[in-house]
Amino acid sequence: MVDDKKKDNTASGLVIEVGNNVGGYAISESFGILIRHYRMKVKDLSLKQLEEMSQVSSSYINRLERGEKTSPSLPVVFSLAESLEIPYSVLMATIFQKTDDKEQGQPSISDVLIQSNFALNDQALSKEARSILITINEFLVDCKWDAGSKVKELYMLSEMLDEFKSAI
Fold it and tell me: Could you give the 3-state DSSP secondary structure of residue 103?
């Protein structure tokens, strides 16, 4: 298992920290949201399954997803990316501050929501609010919205919107 303590990778000598400039890099708060999105929505994996695939402890992954751990080593980052099959371009755009907007391919709406910081009425959205917004987006894309499901789906959407409103 990869230890959840901050440590240098001897090959790179680099530890990434949120908001700090370690080796010229800073990890964004979107990293945890991205990991959670790919684990749950794209790959449909439990924390335990991802632990087995990546050799990173499930408790550490959970703390990364919640933003409690902010200094994963590069081997941890790349192990998670490989296990979740996250394209490195998406990973790098999310981990590091963007200095170039020339992305290859078209990102999904979820990727854009994960990678970007948004303001609502001149107030930055919290990580929780952004996560709920991503869930709402995915619900809208996945819902059937036919005569038999409209009422139930409309109710579910209204519940998610209530949750979003309370998070902002």
Answer: coil
Residue 29: name the closest of 37, 13, 18 by CA.
18
Q: How many residues does the chain have?
A: 168
Which contiguous run of DSSP H or E holds residue 116? none
Please give the model's pTM, rounded to 2 decimal places: 0.50
Using DSSP's 3-state secondary structure scheme, residue 38 falls into: helix
Cα–Cα distance, 98 to 38 (Å, whole number): 20
For 77-130, what is each residue's pLDDT tens digit? Answer: 889 989 998 877 777 777 754 434 444 566 777 777 777 777 787 788 887 888
CB 113 within 8 A of CB 133: yes
d(CA 62, CA 54): 13
The b-or-e profile of 119-132 (16+ CB within 10 A means b, else e) is: eeeeeebeebbbbb
Q: Which of 99, 97, 94, 68 is nearest to 81 (CA)?
A: 94
Q: How many CA atoms lie within 13 A of 6 on its CB side?
A: 10
